[in-house]
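Sorry to interrupt, but I need a hand with the structure work. Could you add the entry underneath, on a fresh line?
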Amino acid sequence: MPLLLLALLLVFALLLLLALLPFSLWQRYRLGKQSRRVWPWLNNLNMALLLASSLFLLGWAALSQYWMADALSMAAVGWLLGLVLGAVNLASSHHQMQGGQYRVTPNAWIVLGLTLLVAARLVLMFWQLATHGLDWRSQAYQAEVAWYLRPASLFAVGALLLGHGLAWCWGLRRRLARSRAAFFDKKKT
């Protein structure tokens, strides 16, 4: 009886997670496009963690080459595209200095695009599990489908998000240093 109760609790938790997923994606978009203060120490910590995560993902993709063809190349291309997208987002965002605090408002279209990319990949994953079960990971299935349907495309999406975040944090670090120097130089005169 306790095992059945535990199984029911697990099923309920999974169903609750699935039901709240659209709401969490909407919240991610809504909060992702708002203006926020940049804390230098937090940005530096985020940058270091994103770099470590990127290296871990690329290393895992290299190890996964044995099971998934093109895992490393998809991860590398996704990471490089993410770096470019992060630089574009940073260049098209609104930056301002208010009372010694650096604030940034990300480009809402890029935030929407990244949120839709994550949502599309999740829907695709659920569709693949529903229609093919775990057979979609087989070599025969991978050979006959488009690149975005392959399991290795998960590495591309993850690497794109990590690359975007890394470029964003690195660019914010540089802009913050220049803005703070200009702000305090202006205050001295």
